[in-house]
């Protein structure tokens, strides 16, 4: 039977959560009375995650497991599952149980109200102050840069209509952020609040560096505003430099030659150099993305698929 709902779960070193996840996810889906499938993608886990997933694929006919040939990242793990998913509604869910699987029926109901993308907002978020502050900064910056109206970019409990998923699959981008990419294809997006819980096992896979990388990917992948802002900064800086040069020229005629302002000039010079290096870095981000695309290397490598008719 063709599934109506596809659940996509990227997995990386989540051995402590997988059994608990399945014990809660499976009843939540069977209780909806709709045919479903669950697709796990093992993103090169170094613990027993793959072993547990293979057992789940053997125990549950609705489960399929994609085994990556290495670590390609959360979004590539989701993309691989998108390519083999069959449901009219595709729901993405993290394996850490911070987003309760019991919330999935709320997303499906919202999709059935006529929306093609349903985002979520974590209510009473159970994360550290650092993570909440970093996430808030990413959300605000991304909204300003891209113009997309998304409240919570970091929550991966989301639902997508088959048409949106098919369009995402056609893109073939080497680096992307799926919620933002889906938003560009959505004709009737929506957002709902969902519960949020503390992580009971393992640790978050997003370090401070990865959060910064995520923000750069969002800005450079969906907007040219950073380049425009840097160009504007360059114009303003140039005008300021001309005005300052005229001031120094007039001052030289009025006061005469002096050497007291040497260190001030050095400070101003270093400030301008800093702006230049920052701008080169932004340009480098865009050039790097182009470089990744033109190489046309595989976005991910699937070693094997377990479960269902694709086993072998």
TrEMBL record:
Transmembrane segments: 229-250, 262-287
Keywords: Glycosyltransferase, Lipopolysaccharide biosynthesis, Membrane, Transferase, Transmembrane, Transmembrane helix
Protein name: Glycosyltransferase
Organism of this sequence: Geomonas oryzisoli
GO molecular function, one term: glycosyltransferase activity
Domain of life from the UniProt record: Bacteria
EC number per UniProt: 2.4.-.-
Domain Glycosyltransferase 2-like: 6-166
PANTHER family: UNDECAPRENYL-PHOSPHATE 4-DEOXY-4-FORMAMIDO-L-ARABINOSE TRANSFERASE (PTHR48090:SF3), UNDECAPRENYL-PHOSPHATE 4-DEOXY-4-FORMAMIDO-L-ARABINOSE TRANSFERASE-RELATED (PTHR48090)
